[in-house]
Protein backbone atom coordinates (compact mmCIF):
# COMPACT_ATOMS: atom_id res chain seq x y z
CA UNK A 1 0.00 0.00 0.00
CA UNK A 2 2.88 2.31 0.75
CA UNK A 3 4.21 1.80 -2.77
CA UNK A 4 0.87 2.91 -4.22
CA UNK A 5 0.99 6.14 -2.20
CA UNK A 6 4.51 6.87 -3.41
CA UNK A 7 3.52 6.42 -7.05
CA UNK A 8 0.52 8.73 -6.81
CA UNK A 9 2.46 11.45 -5.00
CA UNK A 10 5.13 11.64 -7.70
CA UNK A 11 4.53 14.58 -10.08
CA UNK A 12 3.80 13.63 -13.69
CA UNK A 13 6.67 13.90 -16.13
CA UNK A 14 6.99 17.32 -17.76
CA UNK A 15 5.72 17.73 -21.32
CA UNK A 16 8.35 17.18 -24.00
CA UNK A 17 9.98 20.36 -25.31
CA UNK A 18 8.67 21.62 -28.63
CA UNK A 19 11.06 21.62 -31.54
CA UNK A 20 12.25 24.94 -32.91
CA UNK A 21 10.11 24.47 -36.02
CA UNK A 22 7.03 23.82 -33.89
CA UNK A 23 7.76 26.92 -31.76
CA UNK A 24 8.13 29.11 -34.89
CA UNK A 25 4.93 27.62 -36.31
CA UNK A 26 3.11 28.36 -33.05
CA UNK A 27 4.44 31.91 -33.10
CA UNK A 28 3.28 32.59 -36.67
CA UNK A 29 -0.07 30.84 -36.27
CA UNK A 30 -1.11 32.10 -32.82
CA UNK A 31 1.16 34.47 -30.93
CA UNK A 32 1.80 36.93 -33.76
CA UNK A 33 -1.91 37.66 -34.02
CA UNK A 34 -2.41 38.33 -30.28
CA UNK A 35 -2.69 41.98 -29.24
CA UNK A 36 0.56 43.49 -27.98
CA UNK A 37 0.74 45.30 -24.66
CA UNK A 38 3.13 48.12 -25.56
CA UNK A 39 3.27 50.61 -28.43
CA UNK A 40 6.67 49.31 -29.52
CA UNK A 41 5.31 45.76 -29.42
CA UNK A 42 2.33 46.75 -31.57
CA UNK A 43 4.57 48.45 -34.14
CA UNK A 44 6.94 45.49 -34.24
CA UNK A 45 4.07 43.01 -34.62
CA UNK A 46 2.59 45.14 -37.42
CA UNK A 47 5.90 45.01 -39.32
CA UNK A 48 6.43 41.29 -38.72
CA UNK A 49 2.82 40.54 -39.75
CA UNK A 50 3.28 42.40 -43.03
CA UNK A 51 6.55 40.64 -43.79
CA UNK A 52 5.01 37.26 -42.91
CA UNK A 53 1.93 37.85 -45.08
CA UNK A 54 4.03 39.08 -48.01
CA UNK A 55 6.33 36.04 -47.79
CA UNK A 56 3.38 33.66 -47.47
CA UNK A 57 1.65 35.13 -50.52
CA UNK A 58 4.95 35.13 -52.44
CA UNK A 59 5.40 31.42 -51.78
CA UNK A 60 1.77 30.29 -52.11
CA UNK A 61 1.09 32.23 -55.32
CA UNK A 62 4.37 31.17 -56.98
CA UNK A 63 5.47 34.77 -57.47
CA UNK A 64 9.01 33.79 -58.45
CA UNK A 65 7.57 31.93 -61.44
CA UNK A 66 5.37 34.89 -62.33
CA UNK A 67 8.36 37.23 -62.15
CA UNK A 68 10.35 34.90 -64.40
CA UNK A 69 7.42 34.76 -66.82
CA UNK A 70 7.21 38.54 -67.05
CA UNK A 71 10.98 38.79 -67.54
CA UNK A 72 10.91 36.18 -70.29
CA UNK A 73 8.01 37.93 -72.04
CA UNK A 74 9.74 41.29 -71.75
CA UNK A 75 12.95 39.95 -73.29
CA UNK A 76 10.95 38.82 -76.34
CA UNK A 77 9.09 42.13 -76.49
CA UNK A 78 12.11 44.46 -76.29
CA UNK A 79 12.64 44.69 -80.06
CA UNK A 80 8.94 45.31 -80.86
CA UNK A 81 8.73 47.92 -78.09
CA UNK A 82 11.81 49.72 -79.38
CA UNK A 83 10.55 49.43 -82.97
CA UNK A 84 7.28 51.15 -82.06
CA UNK A 85 9.16 53.80 -80.09
CA UNK A 86 11.55 54.49 -82.97
CA UNK A 87 8.78 54.50 -85.57
CA UNK A 88 6.85 57.13 -83.59
CA UNK A 89 10.03 59.07 -82.79
CA UNK A 90 11.01 59.14 -86.49
CA UNK A 91 7.60 60.58 -87.28
CA UNK A 92 8.35 63.47 -84.93
CA UNK A 93 12.02 63.76 -85.96
CA UNK A 94 13.24 62.54 -82.56
CA UNK A 95 14.91 59.25 -83.53
CA UNK A 96 18.45 60.52 -82.86
CA UNK A 97 17.37 61.98 -79.53
CA UNK A 98 15.75 58.67 -78.52
CA UNK A 99 18.85 56.71 -79.51
CA UNK A 100 21.04 59.10 -77.52
CA UNK A 101 18.78 58.72 -74.47
CA UNK A 102 18.89 54.93 -74.69
CA UNK A 103 22.67 54.92 -75.04
CA UNK A 104 23.17 57.23 -72.04
CA UNK A 105 20.73 55.24 -69.92
CA UNK A 106 22.38 51.88 -70.62
CA UNK A 107 25.98 53.06 -70.81
CA UNK A 108 27.29 49.91 -69.02
CA UNK A 109 26.23 47.62 -71.91
CA UNK A 110 27.09 49.38 -75.19
CA UNK A 111 27.41 46.14 -77.19
CA UNK A 112 23.92 45.01 -76.10
CA UNK A 113 22.47 48.38 -77.09
CA UNK A 114 24.24 48.22 -80.46
CA UNK A 115 22.76 44.77 -81.09
CA UNK A 116 19.25 45.81 -80.04
CA UNK A 117 19.31 48.99 -82.09
CA UNK A 118 20.61 46.99 -85.06
CA UNK A 119 17.65 44.60 -84.73
CA UNK A 120 15.25 47.53 -84.52
CA UNK A 121 16.75 49.26 -87.56
CA UNK A 122 16.65 46.08 -89.65
CA UNK A 123 13.09 45.41 -88.55
CA UNK A 124 11.93 48.90 -89.51
CA UNK A 125 13.80 48.75 -92.85
CA UNK A 126 12.20 45.42 -93.76
CA UNK A 127 8.72 46.55 -92.91
CA UNK A 128 8.66 49.69 -95.06
CA UNK A 129 5.91 48.71 -97.40
CA UNK A 130 3.31 46.33 -98.66
CA UNK A 131 1.52 43.61 -96.82
CA UNK A 132 4.53 43.02 -94.58
CA UNK A 133 4.13 46.49 -93.12
CA UNK A 134 0.53 45.87 -92.11
CA UNK A 135 1.25 42.40 -90.78
CA UNK A 136 4.34 43.64 -88.95
CA UNK A 137 2.47 46.48 -87.27
CA UNK A 138 -0.34 44.13 -86.20
CA UNK A 139 2.22 41.68 -84.84
CA UNK A 140 4.06 44.45 -82.99
CA UNK A 141 0.87 45.77 -81.43
CA UNK A 142 -0.22 42.26 -80.44
CA UNK A 143 3.16 41.64 -78.79
CA UNK A 144 2.93 44.89 -76.85
CA UNK A 145 -0.67 44.19 -75.82
CA UNK A 146 0.26 40.65 -74.72
CA UNK A 147 3.16 41.91 -72.60
CA UNK A 148 1.10 44.64 -70.93
CA UNK A 149 -1.74 42.20 -70.24
CA UNK A 150 0.66 39.67 -68.73
CA UNK A 151 2.07 42.33 -66.42
CA UNK A 152 -1.43 43.45 -65.45
CA UNK A 153 -2.64 39.90 -64.76
CA UNK A 154 0.41 39.26 -62.58
CA UNK A 155 -0.13 42.45 -60.59
CA UNK A 156 -3.83 41.59 -60.24
CA UNK A 157 -2.83 38.22 -58.78
CA UNK A 158 -0.34 39.84 -56.42
CA UNK A 159 -2.89 42.39 -55.21
CA UNK A 160 -5.68 39.78 -55.31
CA UNK A 161 -7.92 41.79 -57.63
CA UNK A 162 -11.11 39.81 -58.15
CA UNK A 163 -12.48 41.44 -61.31
CA UNK A 164 -10.42 42.29 -64.38
CA UNK A 165 -10.96 45.31 -66.56
CA UNK A 166 -12.86 44.83 -69.79
CA UNK A 167 -11.01 44.16 -73.05
CA UNK A 168 -11.99 47.57 -74.44
CA UNK A 169 -10.79 49.38 -71.32
CA UNK A 170 -7.45 47.55 -71.49
CA UNK A 171 -7.15 48.29 -75.20
CA UNK A 172 -7.76 52.01 -74.72
CA UNK A 173 -5.38 52.26 -71.73
CA UNK A 174 -2.63 50.27 -73.44
CA UNK A 175 -3.00 52.28 -76.65
CA UNK A 176 -2.62 55.50 -74.72
CA UNK A 177 0.43 54.06 -72.97
CA UNK A 178 2.09 52.84 -76.16
CA UNK A 179 1.43 55.85 -78.38
CA UNK A 180 1.68 58.72 -75.88
CA UNK A 181 4.67 57.60 -73.83
CA UNK A 182 7.24 58.01 -76.64
CA UNK A 183 6.27 61.66 -77.00
CA UNK A 184 6.59 62.36 -73.28
- Overall domain count: 2
Categorize the overall geometry: elongated
Mean pLDDT: 77
Largest sheet: none
Number of helices: 8
Point out poorly predicted stretches.
none
Number of strands: 0
Write the layout of secondary structure elements.
Layout: H1 2-9, H2 20-29, H3 39-60, H4 63-91, H5 95-105, H6 110-126, H7 130-158, H8 167-180
Description:
The protein has 184 residues and is mainly alpha-helical. It folds into two domains: 20-60, no CATH class; 63-183, no CATH class. Helices cover 76% and strands 0% of the residues. It is built from eight helices and no strands. The longest helix is centred in the middle third of the chain and has 29 residues, at 63-91. The model has no long low-confidence stretch (mean pLDDT 77).
Q: Which features does this protein show?
A:
mainly alpha; 2 domains; elongated; 184 residues; single chain
Summarize the structure.
This protein is mainly α and 184 residues long. Helix content is 76%, strand content 0%.
Amino acid sequence: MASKQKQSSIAPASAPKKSIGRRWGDFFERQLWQPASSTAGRAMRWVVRRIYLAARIFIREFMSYRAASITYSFVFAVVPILAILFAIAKGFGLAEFLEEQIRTTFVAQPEVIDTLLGFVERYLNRSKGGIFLGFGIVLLLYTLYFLAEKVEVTFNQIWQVKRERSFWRKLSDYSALFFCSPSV
